[in-house]
């Protein structure tokens, strides 16, 4: 065993300023890598466990007392002492400490202390130190008391001593009696001293003193003292505000007197902290930490007491949902709940769980559903805040409720649809409420926070529910503002833009931008649900109408939506885009933008650059074959030339491989860009879902013999010739940039199978071509492009259709995917 020289007892000072014995062991000073410095280590002599590990800090004041005692403060309220068995051991460790701090070992204190009498604390080790002597509590001593209180704030040890003295002598109540005397005598000087004294006592940061100061009998006098700030010409009237202006509203009478007292106390203390006391400086910010804790624990107690009183909460819910309740009362009830939920944030996680479960059991969600649909703006705003607390706490709980509700209610009154309608109908010009609701919707539809069970039920069930019952409500404003009949009206007026129907109203534009942001999120996270929805509703075409908006932020939102879709590199989407000729509005926007170098210009070019870098062959071919003439004049970036080069390289490669078509079709090595679909995605596309209308990309398993294809093509060509006279109006127009500008009037109906019976039959009859992996180029050119641009010579080379069909047979993108 080590020699007795190093044998020590470890003491720590407890909250009652008593020394606690932490055990006996042997001390050593060694370099500790983790603490990056020389440290004092004490290992217990009983089992060798670590009793103390304390880094010797260069700035800490260490004191040597009575030859065998070393004392120091580790933190603001954590004092330590080592009591050595032998003087030699104490001297040895003291030398090490002085060495680290660069001091002469002959000193008794390694740093200058503010308080020279501190060593008195340790003359009798286990006993309490001497207290500060307070002046008698008299009017003529107020200045002396104020000086004393402000002087101790810089020393943690003296603060402790003063706090103990104040507590032991019942000094605060005496001071508050003096305050009443001063106020009656209108003794301004005395009142100014009392302000300094009471403020200083608050900064002592002692919970025991707060208990006295914030009791019912004292708190108003404390507030009174704090009215007389010497820096103010006139005292503030805080007491008048607390007693007359601030009204305590009991939505339901609170019978528990202790609870009422706690609520009053918490409000007043919060008022002192937030309103009366000046914002603490950097040096003072820790002075009020105990005050913050005092308020915190009061709130915890209030929530717990209310939560346990089930009768009270049941009554609140009953009145909230009762139709007979008048509007003012309901507003107060909702505001009560909002504050109640705000208080609940102070609870520990397990207690907060219990709190929200209690609310859920009592029916908070159906109650919210009623109040969120009300006309009163204040009620709706408070209900939204409560809803946000619930969504933040448990999105799954909210999802479960709306799915159960869907089984017995109409779509119109579903909670999520009520939320979406609130978002759409937000009257605030800046859409503050709509932005908040959009964030909540995003949380609810985010698969990342859905419970990951073995069979993924929550994700699939909730998304099925959302797309069947809610998505049409969310997209309604978007579809209404980009409707076909509006397009035609604008085309007739002969507006310069292809269809300048975009909302010029800033508020509507902002709303559409929010909806697009949510839809873009869906594209990234919902795979086949959103894919099916986009194709059934021809949603991307409608979104791209917004490329004409005078609000650039909205045009960029539309472009971002398309960019996310292309970013997935999914051939279903790529075929949909090429068949619908959906690059046309984007290219028109680029040409309309002219030579301006702005965000829109950069974003469009980045879209094409992505296609070039990722080598998305089907899109590259479509862009080069249909739009290269309009784009070749853009030379300040090499993007479009690069696309042309990629296209030509691919064409050469295909020509070289014409003889080995079958082997290529069978090969798996060309699947590198195709997104592997999950099994459930395969099943989704194999289901025949036509509730929403005819799909733009027809269900692939409805195959017919390929022999039918020529008939449908001939029928289509007859229709095309009949339309050619109309198409003459749609020749490309030159823009200021020198390129072509395409019109947009027929392509919408041509590509959307739901709009024209001829096109529907073509789409249905050409499906075998797709399912067998052979060319769908004919349909691409005929349904999507030719109808819109019958006279664009050079962009569509009809005589070479056969050759292009052969090229596409070898294209790795046209493999059979689903019908197998």
UniProtKB/TrEMBL annotation:
Belongs to the SMEK family. PANTHER family: ATP SYNTHASE GAMMA-RELATED, SERINE_THREONINE-PROTEIN PHOSPHATASE 4 REGULATORY SUBUNIT 3B. GO terms for cellular component: nucleoplasm; protein phosphatase 4 complex. GO terms for molecular function: protein phosphatase activator activity. Residues 681-820 are annotated as: Disordered. InterPro entries: ARM-like, ARM-type_fold, EVH1_PP4R3, P4R3-like_central_dom, PH-like_dom_sf, PP4R3-like. Residues 701-732 have a biased composition (Basic and acidic residues). Residues 681-694, 798-809 have a biased composition (Acidic residues). This is Protein phosphatase 4 regulatory subunit 3B. Residues 144-649 form the Serine/threonine-protein phosphatase 4 regulatory subunit 3-like central domain. Transmembrane segments: none annotated. Residues 745-759, 766-783 have a biased composition (Low complexity). GO terms for biological process: DNA damage response. Gene3D superfamilies: Leucine-rich Repeat Variant, Pleckstrin-homology domain (PH domain)/Phosphotyrosine-binding domain (PTB). Residues 5-101 form the PP4R3 EVH1-like domain.
């Amino acid at each position: 065993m080590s020699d007795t020289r190093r044998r020590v007892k470890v003491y720590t000072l407890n909250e009652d300023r008593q020394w606690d014995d932490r055990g006996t062991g042997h001390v050593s000073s060694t370099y500790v890598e983790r603490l990056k410095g020389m440290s004092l280590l004490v290992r217990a002599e009983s089992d060798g466990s670590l009793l103390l590990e304390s880094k010797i800090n260069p700035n800490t004041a260490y004191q040597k007392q009575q030859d065998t005692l070393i004392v120091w403060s580790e933190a603001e309220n954590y004092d330590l002492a080592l009591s050595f068995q032998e003087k030699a051991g104490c001297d040895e460790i003291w030398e090490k400490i002085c060495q680290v701090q660069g001091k002469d070992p002959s000193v008794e204190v390694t740093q200058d202390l503010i308080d020279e009498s501190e060593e008195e604390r340790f003359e009798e080790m286990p006993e309490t130190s001497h207290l500060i002597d307070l002046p008698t509590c008299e009017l003529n001593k107020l200045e002396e008391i104020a000086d004393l209180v402000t002087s101790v704030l810089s020393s943690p040890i003296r603060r402790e001593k003063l706090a103990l003295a104040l507590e032991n002598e019942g000094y605060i109540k005496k001071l508050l009696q003096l305050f009443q005397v001063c106020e009656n005598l209108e003794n301004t000087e005395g009142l100014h001293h009392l302000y300094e004294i009471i403020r200083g006592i608050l900064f002592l940061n002692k919970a025991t003193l707060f208990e006295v100061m914030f009791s019912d009998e004292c708190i108003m006098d404390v507030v009174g003292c704090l009215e007389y700030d010497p820096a103010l010409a006139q005292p503030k009237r805080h007491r008048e505000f607390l007693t007359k202006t601030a009204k305590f509203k009991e939505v339901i009478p609170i019978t528990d007197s202790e609870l009422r007292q706690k609520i009053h106390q918490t409000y007043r203390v919060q008022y002192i902290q937030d309103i009366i006391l000046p914002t603490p400086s950097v040096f003072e910010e820790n002075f009020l930490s105990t005050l913050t804790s005092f308020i915190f624990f009061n709130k915890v107690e209030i929530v717990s007491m209310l939560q346990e009183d089930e009768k009270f909460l049941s009554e609140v819910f009953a009145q909230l949902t009762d139709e007979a309740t008048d509007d003012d009362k309901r507003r107060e009830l909702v505001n009560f709940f909002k504050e109640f939920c705000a208080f609940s944030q102070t609870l520990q996680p397990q207690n907060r769980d219990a709190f929200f479960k209690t609310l859920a059991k009592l029916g908070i969600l159906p109650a919210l559903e009623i109040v969120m649909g009300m006309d009163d703006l204040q009620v709706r705003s408070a209900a939204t805040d409560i809803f946000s607390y619930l969504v933040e706490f448990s999105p799954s709980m909210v999802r479960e409720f709306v799915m159960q509700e869907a089984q017995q209610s109409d779509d119109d009154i579903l909670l999520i649809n009520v939320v979406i309608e609130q978002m759409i109908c937000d009257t605030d010009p800046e859409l503050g409420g709509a932005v908040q609701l959009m964030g909540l919707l995003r949380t609810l539809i985010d698969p990342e926070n859905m419970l990951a069970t073995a069979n993924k039920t929550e994700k699939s069930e909730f998304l099925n529910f959302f797309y069947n019952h809610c998505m049409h409500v969310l997209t309604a404003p978007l579809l209404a503002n980009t409707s076909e009949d509006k397009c035609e009206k604008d085309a007739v007026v002969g507006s310069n833009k292809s269809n300048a129907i975009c909302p010029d109203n800033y508020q509507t534009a902002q709303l559409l931008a929010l909806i697009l942001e949510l839809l873009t999120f869906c594209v990234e996270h919902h795979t086949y649900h959103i894919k099916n929805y986009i194709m059934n509703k021809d949603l991307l075409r409608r979104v791209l109408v917004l490329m004409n908006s005078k609000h650039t932020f909205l045009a960029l939102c539309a472009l971002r939506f398309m960019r996310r879709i292309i970013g997935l590199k999914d051939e279903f989407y790529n075929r949909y885009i090429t068949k619908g000729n959906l690059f046309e509005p984007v290219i028109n926007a680029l040409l309309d933008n002219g030579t301006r170098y702005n965000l829109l210009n950069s974003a469009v070019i980045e879209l094409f650059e992505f296609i070039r870098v990722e080598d998305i062959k089907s899109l590259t071919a479509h862009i080069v074959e249909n739009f290269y003439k309009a784009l070749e004049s853009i030379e300040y970036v090499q993007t479009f030339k690069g696309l042309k080069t990629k296209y030509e390289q691919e064409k050469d490669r295909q020509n070289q491989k014409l003889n080995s078509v079958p082997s290529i079709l069978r090969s798996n090595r060309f699947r590198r860009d195709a997104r592997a679909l999950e099994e459930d995605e395969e099943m989704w596309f194999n289901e025949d879902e036509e509730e929403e209308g005819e799909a733009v990309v027809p269900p692939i398993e409805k195959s017919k013999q390929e022999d039918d294809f020529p008939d449908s093509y001939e029928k289509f060509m007859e229709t095309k010739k009949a339309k050619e006279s109309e198409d003459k109006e749609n020749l490309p127009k030159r823009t200021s940039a020198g390129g072509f500008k395409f019109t947009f009037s027929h392509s919408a109906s041509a590509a959307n199978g739901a709009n024209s019976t001829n096109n529907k039959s073509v789409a249905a009859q050409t499906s075998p071509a797709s399912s067998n992996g052979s060319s769908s180029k004919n349909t691409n050119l005929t349904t999507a492009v030719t109808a819109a641009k019958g006279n664009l010579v050079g962009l569509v080379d009809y005589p070479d259709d056969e050759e292009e069909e052969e090229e596409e047979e070898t294209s790795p993108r046209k493999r059979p995917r689903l019908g197998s």
